Amino acid sequence: MQTTPRTKSQRPNRRQTVRAEFRRRTLGPISVVPTLLTLANLMCGFAAIHYASRGDVATAVFGWNAITVGGGLIFLGMFFDAIDGSVARLTRSTSDLGAQLDSIADVVTFGVAPAFLMLQLVEAYYGTGVDADATVVGPGVASVYGKAVWAIAAIFVCGGALRLARFNAETASHDERDHRFFKGLPIPGAAGAVASLIVLHQHLLYTRFDATESLAFDRIAALTIPVIALLCGLGMVSNLRYPHVVNRYLRGGRDFGSLVRIALPLVAAIWFLQETLAAACTLYALSGPLGLLRRRSDDDGREPAGTKPGEEFKPEGSEEDLK
C-alpha cells in the first residue's frame, strides 16, 4: 500500500513545536496575596542587608542603630514567611511557583542577611582600637580569626541553600501533614538564633554596659556569635528532626497546660523582648539534638514485653511520627 508523501507545509515545523511546548508550560493565573507576602519577605531581607552594611550608626527607625534594624527586619521577614503558606492554603492557591519563590526569598532573608549581619557585627566591634579603615574580616585579611569568621558566614549561607533545596526535593505535597516536622534545622530557625543574639548584644551594649565594660563584652560576643552561626549552619544540613512550630503547636485544640506554655513567653516578651526572643530561638535550635538524646534514652530504657533476645523492637507509632 502506497502512502502519499506529505508536502513541505504538512511536515512538523520545529519552531511550531517549540512554541506549542512553551504555551503548554506557561503558568496560569498567579495568586496575588500569597505572592505579595513572599515578596515582602524578600524585601525584608534586602532591607536588612542594606541597614547592616551601614554598621554601628544611628538610624531614624526608633533611634536604633543599623545593626539592630537589620536584625529586626529578619524577624519581620519571618512573620511574612510564616503566614504566606497559610494564606495560600486558605485560598487554595498553593503552587510550585509559590514554593520556588518562597525558597528564593528565604535564601536572601534567612541565609545571606544573617550571615552578612554577623560579619558587620564582628567588623564593627572586633576591630576596635585598630585603623578605622582597615578590614578585619574577609578571605584576604592577615588575621586568622577574620578569615575563619568569613568562612563561617559562607558555610551558613551554603547550609541554608542546601537545606531549602533538600526540603523542596523531599516534601511530598503542600498539605499540612507533610509540614509537621523538618529534617535538619529550618533556615528561619537558624536565622532567628543568630539574629536574636545579635539584637540582644546590641540591647545589652547600649543599656547594661558602660564605656569601661563594653570593649570586653564586644570581644566576647565577637567570639561566641560566629561559633553559634557555625553550629546552626551544620544543623541545617543534619538529619536532626525539628517540629514545625505553627502546624505542630498553634493549630487545632490544645489543653490548658499547653496554652500556658505558649502564653508565658508572650507575656515575658512584653518586659524582656530581646532576652525572650534570644532564649526562644536558642531553645528551638537546641530542640533537635536534645530531642535526639531523649529518644535514644527512651529506647535504651524501654523493656518491651514479649520480645525475644535479638529481636528488633519497633516503638509504637514511630512511622507516623517520622512522616
How many E-type strands? 2
Alpha-beta content class: mainly alpha
Mind summarizing the main beta sheet? 2 strands, antiparallel
Which strands sit side by side, in order, in the main sheet? 1-2
| Helix percentage range | 55-70%
Tell me, briefly, the overall form. globular
Report how far the terminal alpha carbons are from each other.
Answer: 60 Å
Beta-strand content: under 5%
Unreliable stretches: 307-323
Helix-strand layout with pairing:
Blueprint: H1 14-25, H2 32-52, H3 66-90, H4 96-125, H5 144-170, E1 181-183, H6 187-207, H7 211-236, E2 241-243, H8 245-250, H9 256-271, H10 273-301, H11 318-321
Antiparallel strand pairs: 1-2
